[in-house]
Amino acid sequence: MPVIAQLEPVATPGIDWFAISPLLVLVGAALFLLTAAALTTTTPPKGFYALFTVVSAVVAIACSALLWERVTDPTEGAFAAIAGAVTIDGFSVFFAVVISVAIALGALSADDYLRREGLDGPELYVLMLLSGAGGVVMAMANDLIVVFLGLETLSIALYVMAGFHLRRLESQESAIKYFVLGSFSSAFLLYGIALVYGATGSTNFSQIARFLSGNVLIANGLLFAGFALLLVGLGFKVAAVPFHVWTPDVYQGAPTPVTGFMASAAKAAGFAALLRVFMSTFELYRVDWRPIMWVLAVLTLVVGSFLAIVQNDVKRMLAYSSISHAGFVLVGVQAASDRGVAGALFYLLAYTFMVVGSFGVVALVGGRGDAAHDLSSYRALSARRPVLALVFTVLLLAQAGVPLTSGFLAKFYVIGAAVESNSYALALVAMVSAVVSAFVYLRITVAMYMSDADAMDGAPAGEPSPPAGVRVPPAAALGLAVAVAFTIAVGLLPSAVVDFTRDAVPVLVSVGP
Amino acid sequence: MEDLPLLSALVVAPAAGAGTVALMPRDRPNATRTVAVLTTLVVAVLSVLVLVAFDTTDAGFQFTERYPWIDDFGIAWYLGVDGISLFLVVLTGLLFPIAVIGVRPHHDPKAYLAWLLLLEAGCLGVFVALDLFVFFVMFEIVLVPMYFLIGGWGYGERVYAALKFFLFTMLGSAFMLVGILAVAFLHERATGVLTFDLVVLAEAQGAIAATTARWLFLAFAIAFAVKVPVFPLHTWLPDAHTQAPTAGSVILAGVMLKLGTYGFLRFGLYLFPEAAAYFAPALVTLGVVGIIYGAVVAAMQRDLKRLVAYSSVAHLGFIVLGTFAFTTPALSGGVMQMVNHGISTGALFLLVGMISDRRHTREISKLNGLQKAAPLLAGVFTVVMLSSIGLPGLNNFVGEFLVLIGSFPTRRWWTVVATVGVILAAVYLLWAYQRVFHGVPDDENASTPDMTRRELAVMAPLLAAMVFLGVYPKPVLDRIEPAVDRLIAHVEDSSGFSQPQIVAEGRSE
Hints:
The structure holds 2 protein chains of 2 kinds. Chain A is mainly alpha-helical. Chain A has 20 helices and 2 strands. Chain A has one domain. Helix content of chain A is 73%, strand content 1%. A two-stranded antiparallel sheet of chain A has the order 1-2. In chain A, strand 1 (79-81) and strand 2 form a beta hairpin. The longest helix of chain A is centred in the middle third of the chain and has 32 residues, at 169-200. Chain A starts with 20 loop residues before the first helix and ends in an 11-residue tail after the last helix. In chain A, 61% of the residues are buried. Chain B is mainly α. Chain B has one domain (6-508). Chain B has 22 helices and 2 strands. In chain B, strands 1-2 form a two-stranded antiparallel sheet. In chain B, helix 12 (273-300) packs antiparallel against helix 13. The A-B interface holds A 397, 402-404, 408-409, 412, 415-416, 419-420, 424, 427-428, 431-432, 434-435, 438-439, 442, 446, 449-450, 493-495, 498-499, 502 and B 69-73, 133, 136-138, 140-141, 143-144, 147-148, 151-152, 158-159, 162-163, 166-167, 170-171, 174-175, 177-178, 181-182, 184-185.
């Protein structure tokens, strides 16, 4: 009998659906929202999209909690899934939580903003969910190609989100700038992946690590060039100096809730990949990359904090301050120890709440047209909106690292890790730059609390200060309440979060041949 | 008494009061005021309870409490008092009600009172903390309420003064945080135990190499020197004191400057005895420079409040001298002087506040002949001024005398120079008094109203304390000395230093 064709079944890897459930929830929610909105003609009730997004994010967090039980179970532990493409360990679950938090808080902040600006619709939420899903992929990745996939999903959605405010020229400019520079950085990353593949023969983290531990590279230029290019690509995402030049313009131009999301989720995802690549995959070469991280950290801290001083636009101030926060996380990375990684994770979690909250306040004060971001817009906010001013003050002081807030513990944690690994100079630079940054946050509180008398002197009594009304809609209020509550609660009783981050350091799982 | 968490209550009560005040409606100023006054009174009673229950014979820490806080770092909520901190706790407990009752803010009393109460919680927290982390948290947190008090309720250049105060102090603390972490992690490297427990870290001398300890001492010393402030780092003080509202100045001078000197004693000397002895000559020199510099600059001031502010620099110089002379009388005198300075300078700031409220100026050249117009005010001012000068029979004399007599054997020439500072204090204060109170008042000053009963009632306890401590300081010294002896023995154990015996014999006679 003539053989027409030999049928050989293609080996498809088994998929552990539960292992990627947070990811599935986010992607599923995005697709559902997109499809449902396209197929239905009736407009859903006010706030439905935001509510749906928040609920999806909460479900993703719940899935992560279940997954957390599994990965911290001593009998099971961390494992690789989908043919070694992803690693499910405390680390990836941790970032799934952080990014879901950023989505939920971002959606709460976006809800009223979009309606105010006449942009309401499901699109921004869909993009936010997809972008977040990309971030989760980056955190779970166990393969450089998967990192790249996640990064692109994250970034492309963000490019669109940055330009979402159609009638604001700055928003368009921001999107273009982010897109052009972002594409460059992706190219760097991709080239870095290629070089590392050339040097080690694999893109899989486990196999790279196995190769590097089993072989001594006599000519290691290729590998180091790969390191450098990977660092450029990821450094761009986390806005580390000198790859930060896009940050102030893009943060300033993007719709404010998007800026908050970008500053938290994109930065967290970038650091997730950075930590995974350098801490667990290239751990053997830490002697080589630590000095580079050291330089990056110092530059990021110093440039971020000093340039923030000379800004007069609050959004730009916070953009530069977010750069200096990245410097603090790099201090944790540079320590290259378990405590350093745990510190960096703690910092990212605390920072997510602080930064989304801060930009949430900025979105409210910005008012119609998302325009009132000059420092003068904050004058006498304490008289007009005492609670909002207090909330912003708490978030700013937390960013400054004042004790009894999560921001202080975050700094304490990373500085502790730096001291533990004898990086005293770096610890000092970091603390001094924290003082410089504090000046920036204090300038905002001065505007909010201490310029009321001046305003009263000049203007007749009863005349409101510039932009008259700052509305605080319930959704945004809820988001801010959550952010402040977390910031203070963790500042007072951090033990649970400290344990969470300690168990979330990345694990290198061995994958087949 | 034993099982009552007295010290936690001291810290938590004002914080809870601050929270209550913050949550009360804005349109009930009297109710918020009552809550605030009651809170400070309760804290005052608690602090007196600590004083009463304090065991004079025990040189160690008493009323200790320990609850785990952040296990992963070995951080615990660990509190306790000894003879050194006892009177600072009492001073804080008693000075706050005076500041709250004695001074009314000119606007927004609710926020003002909430910040003051939070400040009280932080100050008490510093004095009772026995865990480096708790100490640092408290040391830093006091910046926030003080920043808002100066910036929100201060005078002319308040925003500049508030920013300068916050950033200077935070910069100092930045070094200390790195120092604290280094102490803890180096101790962990040597012993395998990560802890921030002051007693454990201090008793494990040798876990950290002597040369390293010297660097760490410097990191701590910068933070404390800014807070004290020691001479070249003092520039924030005149601004902050002058621009702060009266209650702010009272607390700033009365309590918050002591955070630095207390820090030197509790953390500098106790944690790094060898390094403290090594750097003592430098710090004593800076202290003496501060005495002379503060006095000379105070004499030059045109603003009465600024004059008092600079006098603080001089007085604090005495405390620094006493601290680093390492003899029992000098150290006891230094501790005593912390309390005395709190009482006298606190009172001076209250009086200057009264003058400035009446005359709407603090320019010495615009004030004259107030004695005719306000005899009672002048009388009280005289007593407070004489106390600040160090007249025998009043509190400052005892402290300064002990510091000088105790420093002479170990730091002879420094002491000689410092003694000049006592005379200079008389010069600038008496001269200022002359210009402000003597002579014939012009039209503007003639109608200055005298002290009210309420103001007199506020000043009365301070005057009583000045006389009592000046005439009969023994009960105070009895409680301070065991702890001081223990601290000096600790320094002697771990450095080549030993206290000259002449002094000890002289004391026992």
